[in-house]
Amino acid sequence: MPALSLRVWFDAARPRTLPAAASPVIMGAALAAGDGAFHAGAAGAALLGAVLIQIAANYANDYYDYVKGADAGERLGPQRVTQAGLVAPGRMRLATALVLALATLPGLYLIYRGGWPILVIGVLSMLFAVLYTGGPLPLGYIGVADIFVLIFFGPVAVAGTYYVQVQSIRATPLFAGLAPGLISMAILTVNNLRDVDQDRQAGKKTLAVRFGVAFARWEYLLSMTVAILVLPVMLCVVEGGRWGALAATIMAFPAMRTTRTVFTQRDGATLNACLAATGKILLGFSVLFSIGWLFCN
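^ thats the sequence. predicted structure below, dont judge the formating
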């Protein structure tokens, strides 16, 4: 039935992960607006492109984890539609390619606005969307995915969004981008903590597998603390103002709850909820930071 099919594709897109794509774009747009150079068309294209690439990455992850056997057995995370037999592997592979092709449409406009640096960012983002779990040396299987998430969901996304509007760059967007990058890395950490036993059996050497559960828990705590409490203060000091951005530190309160969960729980359902809550913290942080940066000084 069409309705069921649409629901399957929606679930495979893993909407709970999409704040990781949208949040740095929101911050980049706010930083550009703060410098008097907001461009609605460029910001909208950046948002659309980022979300489409994230969906493509999730589709590719669904496909390649099935092919590599990482989704075998009883799954603790959200249902993977390829492993569940709801979508044939070939169709999931085709869907990944189609979504990446759609992402090139806003990408062409962004290249027109920003030139070759945006072309490089776009090509690398699409490439890593597939290489996260695909290819002969998938990033998610060798324990380096965290650093790529930090970079591409952080400084690259924030500064890239800023650049296509302002058409120049300065240090603040790169520095500010560390915050959403770190919280996105925390989202990945929850995912890896939840799946650590399955990943170990499948030969997927995430940082949680390589260094253990305790390491993953402290990685989460450090990422959230630096992103939410340290970076906003440092940015305000460096800018000599923009103190309204400190409103984002309010997200430390829900972050305390998710951190407690990460340190005390291991069951899949609880960590799934924690992953979703961390995504909401990321979105809330980005919105509060952006509003405070623009209007509360």
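The chain has one domain: 2-295.
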